Amino acid sequence: MENKEENDNLEEQVGSKANTEVSKEASESSETEENLPDQIASLKDALLRKTAESENLRKRLEKEKDDAVKYSNKSFARDLLSVLDNFERINANIDSVKYKIDADPNLKAYFDGIAICEKELLSIFQRYGVSRVDVSAGDIFDHELHQAMCEVDDDQLPAGAVVKVFQTGYKYHDRLLRPAMVSVSKKK
After folding, report:
1. Cβ within 8 Å of residue 122, ≥6 positions away
2. At 51, which helix (H) or strand (E)?
3. Nearest to 128 by CA among 179, 69, 42
4. Cβ–Cβ contacts within 10 Å for residue 43, how many?
């Protein structure tokens, strides 16, 4: 009989625990049902943020890839600028020996060939997006395009104006490849 009483007692305890657990689950279920719209809104917001983040990442990577392709020849173009500088030096000094060039047809043909090579190099640069930075004496100094090599006292030009261009500057597409080397005026 004792076993029967113990079994009845045990069944009562198990029953009351089961009832307690069921009532807990029911109350949690009702709380979950009440929080369901908030959870859905929170998940929608998280999904939208992740989607926007992945779209921004995709766009940024695409722009970086396009820039890498667009500016891939930058160092090569910079290296070729020295060749173009040499052509400019030749042309700058031709006037001093013009009378000798006109007298000798072979010399004239030689310098004509140099002029043709320079024009070809300039057309190739233009085709690939390399262009000159236009600057001349009297222009206002622009720190984004010019590099000041020295300051010169000059009362004829306003302070901060370009006095002389020592070396031509170049751009590669929309980026500066090499600044123009200039002297800048200052007031006495």
Report:
1. 84
2. helix 2-70
3. 69
4. 10
DSSP 8-class letter at 135: -
Distance, in Å, from the CA atom of 166 to the CA atom of 168, rounded to the nearest integer, reads 7
- Predicted TM-score (pTM) of this structure: 0.64
| pLDDT tens-digit series, residues 118-133 | 999 999 999 999 999 9
The CATH number of the domain covering residues in 129-188:
2.30.22.10
- Coil, strand, or helix at residue 145? coil
Torsion on CA atoms 32, 35, 36, 42, rounded to nearest 10: -130
- In sequence order, what are the residues at sequence separation of 6 or more whose Cβ sits closer than 8 angstroms to the Cβ of residue 37? none
- The conformational region for residue 138 under phi > 0 = left, psi -120 to 50 = alpha, else beta, is left
- Show the low-confidence residues of the chain (pLDDT under 50): none
pLDDT of residue 20: 61
